[in-house]
Structures are given as structure tokens and as C-alpha cells.
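Hey team,

Filing this mostly as a record. A colleague (T.K.) asked me to run one chain through the structure pipeline before their review meeting, and I want the input and output archived in the tracker in case anyone asks later how it was produced. No errors, nothing strange. Just documentation.

Input sequence:
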Amino acid sequence: MADVAGAAGRLGPVLRVHRRFRPLSWPARVWLHACGVAVSVVVCLALGEWWPAPVLAAAAVVTVSGYERLRPTPGLRSVRVHEGGLVLVSAGGSEEPLPWRAMEATEYSPGGPHGEYEHGRIWPAGADEPLVLAHLGGLGRLFRELEERLSPGLRAALHETLRAEGSVRFVRGRLTVTAGGLVHRPPHPLAATEAYRWPEVHSARASALGELEVRTHSAGLPLTFPVPNARAAAGFLEDLRTASTG
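Output structure:
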């Protein structure tokens, strides 16, 4: 335990703390919001005016959100961001340090409109399974910072892989990158393989959804790939494109 505490101390000062909360189930949220609507209607009928309705509705949303963050939750209690890495704090108080250099990749999903919660994955070096983080306050900000910190090293590693192996494959070979261009193999078995030289590639960037987005001069729609650390991958492709086109 002392070794773990010492390792956490060596990560430097604490920059920020992301605390975990226990979200309400989707039926419970619907029920509470319905109660809020009913109370709003009763108040408006009693006053003979409808202006309090939006105020009460907003108050109900804030109350539900605040209640979720006050509920105790088992397992992970918080994630501390240190200058030198992360510290995962369990509900029992134990701490697990995770230095920046011990992370190989990250992936973030913002969730969706049908009850899917935002979550993120961290692949520690040498681990068989990723570490999944969810229901943390400021989770999007945390993973944006992780991507900024890890991107330079991951980008350099992609260049090294290209030099050593002659190509870099993404998404199980759907996208293959070489010094001369890229090859796109669509997931549909009847779709034709597409090859583009770097002068035919317009740009590469990380989309708002965290995917690698490649635009070519000939295709109307961009090619999108669910790539972990899309920012590093996009920078890698941009390096090759820029070097090729001068």
C-alpha cells in the first residue's frame, strides 16, 4: 500500500478531480420528469398563469441531475488528474496510479439520445482489456486532455511502424496507410477496394465523434473510421500527405 501511495505521490501535484456519480435509470428519469410536469401544471392552474412552467421544468431537470451526482456509488469513486498521470480512487479509498507513459491508447464515446451514457476506454500498456470509465463528471474534458497528452507519442509510434513495416493498418485492415498513399477496403464484401495516392487526398482530421475522417478530391462524402486516438492518426496521415505534396 505504501508503494502505491508513493507512486501516486511521484505523479506530481493534483490538477483536477473527476468524481463518479450513479445515474438514475431511464424509467426513473421519465417518472421524475413526468412528476415535474404534473407539478408545473398544478401550480400554473392555481396561479391562473403559465409563465412558471418553463422555470419549474428547468428546476426539475437541475434537481434530477444534482441528485444523480449526490448518490453514493460503489466501485470507482473518482479519478484524479496529476501532472504526471491519473490516479484511480476506489470507493474503499485505495488508489491506483496510472502514469501518462503507461497508457497506449484511449477512446471516447459521447453517448446518444436514447439513454446511452457517455464512456471512455483507456488501454494500459501490457493489459489484455481496456479500462472503462463512465458516469464521471467532466468525462469529455478528461478524454480530450488524455488525447492531447498522448497524441505526440502515438503519432511518433505510427511513423516508426511505417518505417519498420512499410505500412500501418487501421480497423482490421479497412484502412491501410503506406508512404505512397492509402487503401480503403469497405466492410461490404461486394464493394470495390479504393486506392488513393497522397495528392488525391484532400485532408484528414478527427471528427467531433472521435472518428478518423479522410476526405479525397474525388469522393463527395468523407471516409470515416472508428479509430482510437483519431487525433494522432489524423496527424500521422497529414504528415504523410504534406510531405508527399510538398
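Quick notes for T.K.: The helical segments are 2-9, 26-47, 52-70, 139-165, 230-245. Residues 64-73 have pLDDT under 50 and may be disordered.
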